[in-house]
């Protein structure tokens, strides 16, 4: 039964028309990413009703959760990319071993990170941009969020384990259920139970717990090719080394998001709580939009991994092109909406604070202008990562929030003040896109060479078989 189910999954990934397959794989991941980002934004929305300082607190705590995401995404994407290739090769035993080890590593990583952040919480929050008025809110919010770090980290990994084998619909159900629950629980805990900003954090942890339970059930169900087991957890460092190497781009991408967010908050806080709140709100809105592109990219990754493992290089190339076109179209629509309705979007969060609206509207429009470019950056990075092109993928992951953003935030804020801070991300995004293009071109040149070698080897093998057949005497 397992063999039949594995073969059907293999045929789905390697034979389905590419546009249909990418849309099928990415639609659930887009929904799950959107719901995940929306319920994160729901915290900002409901907490904003408590005041500008409370609104800023959610943005200040973001660098801590970004570090957790960096660890979770590193383990999940690293394991998922390796698993996709194993499944393409038909090696389910090694795939199970990697999956089980990844789950163990995620729980341990969440515990260690939560304890470290708790020990140095106040200094960390001050460093990442909390003003004297924002700090009390940030401490209350963070104290509860840290308790949920192991749960959240494990959820990220289980999410990847479903996506890497093409079970994106189950991934969507698990993430979306928790996200929708969070949206309903936020006002209940914040206002009905009168728990304030602590209520938002508790609602988030409860929702993440529900998501984790559902994802665990799906991974262990008969619909999953993978099976998690304590007996399959690796005791050696080899498996973890592979996971870390392949997942390094995700770690740097998310880790640098934490660092850049901290630097951003530090530069912005001199302009007051309104500026911190505006950047926090736009950051959440931008995250929702980027979730669309990331969802397309995450739906594309198992397709690339499966077909690369099956040596179907033509479909790898086709998958990349389709992903690029779909992502660019979606980002363009989102960019137009954000550019036109920027003030209205900011007013949803802080309708009675004109400073927040004015600062945030310009920032959102500047970032919207370069959104279509992100399809190139994300598609190329995820292509390289899904096929274990570790060095190239890691370098590209370093560009957007590190190599370009970090020096630009210092230079432009010093030269142009608040305006310089507002345009930093857009300039960084443009430079990242220009950097990604030669990497994509170089990779597909290599793919053509591999494709030619594969054809030549098969042709030679067929010729040998024919000669044997012709010379055979009964």
UniProtKB/TrEMBL annotation:
Subcellular locations according to the entry: Cell membrane
One GO biological process term: response to antibiotic
InterPro entries associated with the record: MATE_fam (IPR002528), MATE_MepA-like (IPR045070), MATE_MepA_subfamily (IPR051327), MdtK-like (IPR048279)
Highest taxon in the source lineage: Bacteria
GO MF entries: antiporter activity; xenobiotic transmembrane transporter activity
Membrane topology, from the record: Multi-pass membrane protein
CDD domains: MATE_MepA_like
Annotated GO CC locations: plasma membrane
Transmembrane segments: 21-42, 54-77, 98-121, 141-162, 169-191, 197-218, 230-248, 274-297, 318-342, 362-383, 403-421
Record keywords, A-Z: Antibiotic resistance, Cell membrane, Membrane, Transmembrane, Transmembrane helix, Transport
Main location: membrane
Family: Belongs to the multi antimicrobial extrusion (MATE) (TC 2.A.66.1) family. MepA subfamily.
PANTHER family: MULTIDRUG EXPORT PROTEIN MEPA (PTHR43823:SF3), SPORULATION PROTEIN YKVU (PTHR43823)
NCBIfam families (alphabetical): matE
Name used for this protein in its record: Multidrug export protein MepA
Lineage: Bacteria, Bacillati, Bacillota, Clostridia, Eubacteriales
